[in-house]
Design goal:
The chain is an alpha+beta fold. The chain has ten helices and 23 strands. The strands form eight sheets. It has a six-stranded antiparallel beta sheet, with helices on one face. Strands 21-20-19-22 form a four-stranded mixed beta sheet.
Length: 497
């Protein structure tokens, strides 16, 4: 940045600082003298005078945009010595500033941002306004949650791929902004993945982004302190035009209410009192198997705990959003029977409602951090697909169990307890609920050592609060992947990365 000599002026503007100098234009921070407000000035470089017509055409396109979320053009001047326009200086840091600083946003706030961006983009789409590529540096976010966007309009017909390119670009660039381990983080990351085209046949539209982000905001409104009440954004009233050339009307932003006021509470989980334990890295190498052999395994990560009711609720909420576009089967395992209608666990409505109120379900106290139960193998596989992971094999599960554990039978089986870092049923490396809590589905069928020549069946591993006898060494075999029980859940495995 460069400070010019004192009292340099362009028309009614006192130049303060050179912000950017490109091959065609210069951008200045300036003060509009008549009303004593800071503005940005984009000036056509004198040596580029042959581009004046296209420069003015782009200004006309910007001035024609009239939307409260998009920055205004105040005035344009074109005479024998000057060619420039003044535009609104948007308040607040940009999302690009936050990315460079390594900052994150709560899922509620980022979902709110995506909804407002979608609203502005739909306005431009509907009017066929072409724009330069949207990136995080064009989106300003004030501390009170007010969103404003740089006016990127330019002359010409809107490109057919403009919206798709912007969706994919933002879906990729905004991922580091999502704060981890907070309610809604998985849902927000899923929405960004859909914008990139992952997990869907093609990237979703701005209209769908607006709908889905609104659902996330509504679902989180009950559990996260609302953003500050929507406050009207009141840019200054436009002064009388000075040297306004024909065809360019200054756009004045009137009082608008943007933000999230009076958000209707959604049905969602309360945030856990403490973050859930992180997944555990299991190193590559030869590991003992439950049948007494050795198995060479690649490195992988195993969730420290079984999937919780709160986590599974987020999955079902995602499927509910997908159902609007008849895509609720996106994560179904390919062998799932066509007659299977959904992935709701047994008695889900009652279980979920009880967990949210920390009540008692079927004689057992439950919270949103209690392991989910009543799921069949296809439910577990679909959840894992959504999380971009998988069910562990029984060999992986047992290899993780045996890390620093000489005698697995010494682990005390727990009741069906909420997941906390203090859960007593734990291994030295921090795996919880391996001996008790709930039994778990695994990924592949295996032979029962009591009948080694018999049919390979699907393996359920680990003890449960209803079947604690064999603890961490418990295994069952079944040919019924549709089986559901009040003591049967699962945990997530992923490749090491």
């Amino acid at each position: 940045m460069e400070s010019p000599p004192d009292d340099i002026r362009l028309g009614d503007y006192r130049i303060k600082e050179l912000l950017e100098e490109g091959p065609i234009t210069r951008t200045w921070l300036a003060e509009q003298i008549a009303v004593r407000r800071d503005v940005l000035i984009d000036e056509l470089r004198p040596e580029m005078a042959d581009l004046k017509d296209s420069f003015l055409a782009d200004i006309r396109a910007k001035a024609a945009v009239d939307h409260p979320l998009i920055g205004s053009v105040y005035e344009a001047v074109s005479d024998s010595t000057n060619c420039f326009f003044a535009r609104e200086r948007l308040p607040g840091p940009t999302l690009g500033d936050r990315l460079r600083a390594g900052a994150t946003l709560k899922p509620l706030m980022l979902a709110h941002v995506l909804g407002r961006v979608a609203e502005a983009q739909l306005h431009l789409e509907s009017r066929g306004t072409d724009c330069t590529e949207l990136d995080p540096d064009h989106i300003h976010l004030e501390e009170n949650g007010v969103i404003r966007m740089v006016n990127l309009a330019h002359a010409g017909k809107r490109l057919a791929e403009r919206s798709l390119d912007d969706l994919v670009a933002l879906g990729s660039s905004l991922v580091p902004l999502v704060a981890d381990s907070l309610p809604g983080s998985t849902r927000t990351l899923t929405l960004l993945a859909w914008m990139r085209g992952e997990g869907v046949a093609q990237p979703i539209t701005w209209e769908q982004v607006q709908v889905y982000s609104g659902q996330i905001v509504q679902q989180l409104a009950e559990t996260v302190q609302p953003l500050s009440p929507a406050t009207a954004h009141m840019p200054e009233t436009k002064p009388p035009p000075y040297g306004l050339f024909a065809g360019i009307a200054a756009v004045v932003i009137l009082a608008i209410g943007i933000g999230i006021a009076k958000m209707k509470p959604g049905e969602t989980s309360a945030p856990p009192s403490k973050p859930l334990p992180e997944a555990i890295l299991i190193p590559a190498g030869n590991h003992p198997t439950p049948d007494g052999g050795q198995e060479s395994l690649h490195a992988f990560r195993l969730s420290a705990h079984e999937v919780t009711i709160g986590q599974y609720a987020e999955f079902l909420e995602t499927l509910g959003m997908l159902a609007r576009d008849q895509r609720e089967h996106t994560f179904d395992e390919e062998s799932q029977p066509p007659t299977k209608a959904n992935h709701e666990p047994t008695d889900w409505a009652n279980l979920y409602a009880t967990a949210k109120s920390n009540g008692v379900w079927q004689g057992q106290p439950v919270t949103l951090d209690s392991p989910v139960v009543g799921v069949d193998w296809w439910d577990a596989m679909a959840f894992c697909g959504w999380k971009q992971g998988r069910l562990p094999t029984q060999d992986e599960w047992y290899a993780a169990l045996r890390q620093q554990v000489e005698n697995p039978s010494s682990i005390k089986a727990s009741k069906w307890l909420p997941v906390t870092a203090e859960t007593p049923d734990r291994t030295p490396i921090g795996l919880l609920g391996m001996a008790g809590s709930v039994a778990e589905w695994t990924r592949r069928p295996g032979a029962n050592p009591a009948n080694p020549l018999g049919q390979k069946l699907w393996v359920i591993i680990g003890g449960s609060y209803l079947k604690p006898a064999n603890g961490a060494l418990a295994r069952e075999w079944t040919d019924d992947r549709a089986m559901r029980r009040p003591d049967l859940g699962f945990r997530l495995a992923t490749d090491a990365r």
